[in-house]
Amino acid sequence: MKILTANDLATGDVVWWAGDGWSRLLEQAVDTGADGEDIGKREEAARHVVGAYVVDAEQTADGPRPAHIKERIRGLGPTVRPDLTLKPEAGDLTAWVI
After folding, report:
1. Contact by Cβ (8 Å): 68, 77
2. Which of 4, 54, 79, 88 has the most crowded CB, counting CB atoms within 10 A?
3. Structural domain of 76
4. What is the DSSP letter of 93?
5. Residues 57 and 67 sit within 8 Å (Cβ to Cβ)
6. Nearest-CA neighbor of 32 among 17, 47, 42, 22?
7. CA distance linking residue 84 with residue 80, whole number of Å
8. Which InterPro entries match (predicted)?
9. Residue 64 carries which DSSP code?
10. In whole angstroms, what is the distance from residue 38 CA to residue 61 CA?
11. Positions of the chain with pLDDT lower than 70, given as ranges
């Protein structure tokens, strides 16, 4: 599956394409298929986001899981301040990141 990520232009937050708009929650990301790059360009042109790019992911019971660790870390939030991270519903965070 292919999912789309970017940074919100107003806040700088990491966001994921949810089909009808952007979400800060990775588990709300939807498969964009072959349309991801076009959606990203359209959303950047509308000045909603910046730096949009398509990410390979697999669908799991807990939602999409990016193939690369960089995007898994982006999905959780800052690594230097654990109090600022977005925590997935799953209890075992190490299984989610690694």
Report:
1. no
2. 4
3. 2-97
4. H
5. yes
6. 17
7. 9
8. DUF2849 (IPR021270)
9. E
10. 28
11. 78-80, 82-98
Q: Where are the alpha helices (DSSP H) in 1-98?
A: 36-45, 69-76, 93-97
Find tokens 């000045």 and name the residue.
47
pLDDT in tens, 56-80: 999 999 899 999 999 998 887 766 6
Q: Cβ neighbours of residue 37 under 8 Å, at least 6 residues apart?
A: 54
> Residue 10, Cα to own-chain centre: how many angstroms?
17
Instruction: Specify the long-range contacts of residues 53-59, CB closer than 8 Å, at least 24 apart.
Output: 53/4, 53/5, 53/6, 54/2, 54/3, 54/4, 55/2, 55/3, 55/4, 55/5, 56/1, 56/2, 57/1, 57/2, 57/3, 57/29, 58/1, 59/1, 59/31
